[in-house]
Design goal:
Length: 453
């Protein structure tokens, strides 16, 4: 008599998506009433001035968020069928580690200096390079395969490096112009994270729709979408705002960098926190799927991905509440980093049910939604705008170096396990919390008084 073993594939309940949607809707809809009641002198969200609905600040904000959403869709489009596409292109599982190492190596040795280039040639030009890079990769993947796929990997890694700083620095530089309000930057920062998360979910929808039911024949279809979106982005940027022209030579930039960045330990603490966050997020995205499917568990990863990004959107909507409640940004960041570190510590050393893991993953991303605009706000308070891109890109270099080291230890030498990598990410987040604590104790510095939001 045979024994039939029933297997089931775990998937999140539809009530999870409903809860995230309703929570985000309530957070966005109730906040204007709270603001008008507790801070009547302030303008309501999503507006620049009650008598000037189409002022330069609001026009640029709408234009910028549209461009940023296009860029976010491009960033997420290539990862929809990432591992399957690697296998389809003839890259074995053993070479996947090398594939990741090449990408992070390009980000470390080349991408780390793109921020300096951006500050020197203009932030908008670097954003344009981002779209041009995706256009080239999309065309290349449509007409070629084999070794060129490795070059495409390098190009996409460099494009991701540009994405991490260029759009933020461009937005800050534009708001620093006459006629633009500085305090609208807080709104722009959290809206960036909100629209980015929504766009990443949209990229999954677009990718699945274009591939359809035949994976082998439709695997190249996302390249068509990437070419179209990159073309739209290039056209919109070419016909939009002029951007910020070059303001200093490399010699002047280097002297200013030494004077403001290297001489101020507050900025060092901020850069360290940014590096720790980048490191933990990278480790998470490398290992979240293997953690869920450990021991042969079957999971619909495509349904869990929107849960995490939805939680990230919800976390971003908490940012304006905390800022309006006059909570100090360093305190918010310290508690958020500690929460993330505790979550990763539990994930690293405790075997859990899939539902519990997904809940922890979602809470982790909710914290990310709060942390990213908070760090951007601190950078505006502490870092000169003309040095912002260089600081962000250089601060990510230690994180990329740490990821390279751990990938080599895990992939080639087999000296550590996945749980150890997650534990290192948790330690990094505890370090970030410590940086925020020390930054709070240091107090304000002169530059903050000039750019108080």
């Amino acid at each position: 008599m045979g024994i039939v073993i029933e297997t089931s594939v775990w998937e999140p309940s539809s009530s999870v998506f409903i809860f995230i949607f309703i929570s985000g809707f309530l957070s966005l809809s109730i906040f204007p009433f709270y603001l008008s009641k507790h801070a009547p002198t302030k303008a309501p969200p999503f507006s620049d001035h009650p008598t000037s609905s189409y002022s330069p600040s609001l026009r640029f904000q709408l234009y910028f968020l549209f461009i940023y959403s296009l860029a976010s869709v491009l960033e997420g489009l290539w990862s929809v069928y990432g591992e399957f596409e690697l296998v389809y292109r003839g890259i074995s599982k053993e070479d996947t580690v090398t594939f990741l190492l090449v990408g992070f190596g390009a980000a470390l040795f080349v991408g780390s200096f793109f921020g300096i280039v951006s500050d020197l040639i203009g932030r908008k030009k670097m954003c344009l390079v981002f779209f041009i890079t995706h256009l080239i990769v999309g065309i290349w993947k449509m007409i070629a395969s084999g070794p060129s796929f490795w070059i495409a990997n390098v190009c996409l890694s460099l494009a991701t490096s540009i994405f991490t700083f260029s759009f933020e620095t461009w937005a800050v530089a534009e708001h620093d112009k006459p006629g633009h309000r500085q305090d609208i930057l807080n709104e722009t920062f959290w809206l960036m994270i909100f629209f980015e998360s929504a766009s990443l979910i949209g990229s999954q929808v677009i990718g699945n729709w274009m591939v359809g039911g035949n994976l082998e024949k439709g695997i190249g279809s996302p390249s068509i979408a990437a070419v179209l979106l990159a073309t739209v982005g290039i056209i919109c940027m070419s016909r939009g705002h002029d951007g910020t022209p070059k303001t200093m030579t490399f010699k002047d930039y280097r002297m200013s960098f030494y004077a403001h960045i290297f001489a101020d330990r507050r900025i060092w603490l901020l850069a360290c926190a940014q590096a720790c966050l980048h490191f933990s997020i990278a480790v998470f995205w490398i290992l979240w799927a293997p953690t869920l499917v450990a021991d042969g568990r079957e999971v619909y990863l495509g349904l869990i991905y929107p849960c995490m990004l939805g939680a990230r959107m919800l976390g971003s909507t908490v940012f304006p509440w905390l800022i309006d409640a006059s909570f100090r940004t360093e305190d918010c960041l310290m508690y958020a980093f500690v929460t993330q570190a505790l979550l990763l510590s539990i994930i690293a050393y405790d075997y859990q049910d899939i539902g519990v893991l997904v809940t922890q993953f979602s809470l982790f991303h909710a914290c990310i939604g709060l942390i990213l605009p908070s760090l951007a706000r601190l950078r505006t308070m502490y870092v000169p705008n003309e040095l912002r891109g260089g600081l962000i890109s250089l601060s990510l270099a230690p994180a990329n170096a740490a990821i390279l080291f751990l990938l080599m230890q895990r992939g080639y030498y087999r000296t550590i396990e996945n749980s150890t990598m997650i534990a290192f990410a948790a330690v990094g987040l505890f370090m970030a919390a410590g940086c925020m604590y020390v930054l709070k104790r240091c107090g304000k510095q002169p530059y903050q008084n000039r750019h108080k939001l």
